[in-house]
Amino acid sequence: MNRARLGKLAGTVWLAAAAGAVPAAAADWGRINLPRGVTNVSTRIYALHMMAFWICVGIGVVVFGVMIWSLIFHRKSRGAVPDVAMVHSTKVEVLWTAIPVLILVGMAIPAARLLVRINNNTDSQLSIRVNGFQWGWQYKYVGTNVSIISKLSLSSDAASMLDSGINVDRVPHYLLSVTHQLVVPVGEKIRLLITSVDVVHSWWVPDLGVKKDAIPGFINQASFIINPSKTGVYRGQCTELCGRGHAFMPIVVRAVTPAAFKAWLKRKEAAGKSAPAGASASTSPGVST
Ligand SMILES: [Cu+2]
Predict the structure, then answer these.
(1) From ligand 1's centre to the CA of 275, what distance in Å?
(2) Distance 246 CA to ligand 1 centre (A)
(3) Confidence band of 139 (pLDDT split at 50, 70, 90)
(4) How far is CA 27 from the centre of its chain?
(5) What CATH fold (topology level) applies to the domain 126-283?
């Protein structure tokens, strides 16, 4: 095949791929991009991310625009002669160093401010100890006897078995559902004290803007305030390759109103007290949600 025919074939394949890919990509754009989230900081993280994105787009448009314009209008075949005055010009070199520095400083200031805000774990109204283990999460509500063991839901677990014959597309929230959800109130500052009992895990819920490593022997902190209007269920996963069952330790957070949370906690505390010593109310076969 000669070069022209090869080029034409490649062009046809590319166009066919692009035509098929564009509608799907456009439809899924919201899922590809960073989520806005539902907390006080997740929306700011999203805004910062979009600001950086549009700055990059602007730089790309300017740089590629000048490049393409030069290629078309100042090509050798048109009789263009290189401008040697630009070579080793101190003025130009100062300019193309100063402009990126100003752009980077302009991006670093809001980023540093947000980082300080993200790491402010003071004045929390509720503390929860998060223990990662192979393969699940344990949540202990500090100051109460409530402890939850959260593992992969029974429906996902059954479907994930080799030759289970179960169509995973039919399993609701496959690999993103758990036996017991972490229940938290909206509108209150919740501090997580994150650690692990075996290997390194990572607690990640994108909608909460939280991603923190769970490291044995260390306690990491993270906090969030879910916007009062955003009651609902938020899902995440372990994001540290922690062994064979790494893909099977999802995180599900249910955000409820403070009143509903109080009632739930009371119920759990009462159940914990009435349970025989050593047994946890949360470890009973629970709902798969
Ligand atoms: Cu893990």
Answers:
(1) 29
(2) 5
(3) very high
(4) 20
(5) Immunoglobulin-like (2.60.40)
